[in-house]
Amino acid sequence: MNAPREMLDPAAYDKIWRPYLEAETLPPWCYTSPEWYALEVERLFMKSWNLIGHASRIPEPGDYFTLDFSGIPLIVLRDRDGTVRAFANSCRHRGTQMLGGEGNCKSGIKCPYHGWVYAPDGRLTGAPGMEDCHDFDKAKWGLKAVRLEKWGGFLFATFDPETVPLAEWLGDAAQYAKPYGIDRLKVTRREVYDVRCNWKLYAENFKDNSHIKTVHVNTLYRQVLNYTGPLQYLGERGEWYGAFLPHEGTRTILDGVGKDESAPGVKGFPAIHEFANGAIEAGSFYPSIYPGTCIGMCIDSAWFLEILPRGPDRMTLAVNLCFHEETVARPDFEEIADLYYKRMAIAVPEDNEANENMQIGLSSAHSRPGRMGHMELAVSHMNQAWVAKVLGQPFTRRLEGVYSVV
Ligand code: FES
Ligand SMILES: [Fe+2]
After folding, report:
1. Measuring CA to CA, which residue among 89, 99, 88, 102 is closest to residue 60?
2. Average pLDDT per consecutive 10 residues, the chain (406 residues; last block may be shorter)
3. In a 3-state reduction of DSSP, which class is residue 160?
């Protein structure tokens, strides 16, 4: 199974389409093959809306950050007029990657190789060494813009002019997210990890509730005490699949809100006012937006994963923790936020190790497709969505209701 001549034969995926209690997992080559990965880049990432960061990272005119998304170096910046833009991080002269890390480029982006200069809106404003060239018009040699749209502060990029607008892609996810105040979130902590696993393992892990009582048995599992009802699957329109989990308190600190007698006084931040007003039932909303965007929205905070694929068996993971503007303005913000940061610092390495072990096992010549468990409906569903896109098949979502997570 490690040299899959049948990789594009739909028959190789027959068993992933079964009802999820009968379904098999993806063939291992989907997690290990460079050829399959190349197809994903071409047919999934280039044509989809991909989460590439958050606007609160670049609050001032000229602020920028850079990233590599599936082999494409990008600059994401706030223009002098406040517009957030994305550009290919490739000089139009001879291709040099111009910026790294993050910083401010209000005065322009200067290529380190020969010194071409671009304004933050992408216009080429200086081109030393081109003075004697024939028919050279600076207006034609600006940076290559990448399509970027915002959902609240979440920044999504696509590389295909034909991709539907982001609002259509998100469908009814936007209505479920509204009470979480996503227009007012600020990223206050961002931790970056190099993870030796396929990007899909991380996206699946985000929706895999059954690993919580094993991988996180001494940490997150304690939070099941807070559940107040069964997990419900959501998503009728758009390129996403989500879950709503009703619970008391917050799920973004390890000890819950007032639930753990061993940690008296650990309360976390209050719910944002939409929840405090009882607008909807309190709980967490977890949209998985295709192909790899994972966002967790809680009553008092939110977190999201930037899953940046770097090949079939490697990815960069950036874990972002967000709070509402009014929460960040509290005088005790740093002290209490530390509880949330600790939760991530403990739980994320647990997931990293679990996913790296899966990658090792899947890379074996003896690895074969497995079976979905009864708590793996969302994993099965995502597998179908990904394969359908790569094979160019139609995909219709199946909603199968609710189930207990305890
Ligand atoms: S490659 Fe950028 S100025 Fe020459
Ligand atoms: Fe986990």
Report:
1. 102
2. 72 91 95 97 98 98 98 98 98 98 98 98 98 97 98 98 98 90 95 98 94 89 71 87 84 58 59 66 88 94 97 98 95 93 93 98 97 90 94 77 50
3. coil
Distance (Å) from CA 111 to ligand 2 centroid: 41
Query: For residue 214, what are the contacts with CB-CB under 8 A and spacing of at least 6?
Result: none
Is there an atom of ligand 1 within 6 Å of 182 CB? no
| CA-based nearest residue to 303, from 290, 293, 292 | 293
Tell me if 358 CB under 6 Å of ligand 1: no
DSSP 151: E
Rounded Cα–Cα distance for residues 131 and 115 (Å): 13
Query: From ligand 1's centre to the CA of 89, what distance in Å?
Result: 12
Residue identified by tokens 């991380």 is 202
113 lines ligand 1 (CB under 6 A): yes
Q: Which two tokens stand for residue 385?
A: 């969505």
Number of the ligand closest to the Cα of 205: 2
Eight-class DSSP state of 290: T
Dihedral over Cα of 127, 132, 133, 135: its sign: positive
Pairing status of strand 117-118 against strand 109-110: antiparallel
User: Residue 125: phi, psi to the nearest 5?
Assistant: -110, -15
111 lines ligand 1 (CB under 6 A): yes
DSSP, res 144: P
Q: Which ligand is nearest to the CA of 220?
A: 2
Minimum CA distance residue for ligand 1 atom 4: 114
pTM over the 0.85 mark:
yes
Domains of the chain, with CATH numbers? Answer: 50-149 (2.102.10.10), 171-403 (3.90.380.10)
The CA distance from 157 to 93, in Å, is 24
Which residue minimizes the CA distance to atom 1 of ligand 1?
Answer: 94
Calpha distance 92→95 (Å, rounded): 6
Q: In this structure, which ligand is nearest to the CA of 94?
A: 1
Residue 250 near residue 269 (C-beta atoms within 8 A): yes
Q: Given the CA of residue 92, which atom of ligand 1 is nearest to it?
A: 2
Which residue's CA is minimally distant from atom 3 of ligand 1?
Answer: 114
- Rounded Cα distance between 101 and 48, Å, is 25
CA distances from 386 to 23, 177, 200, 309, 394 (A): 15, 24, 9, 15, 11
| CA distances to 184, 255, 298, 326 from 301, in Å | 11, 15, 5, 11
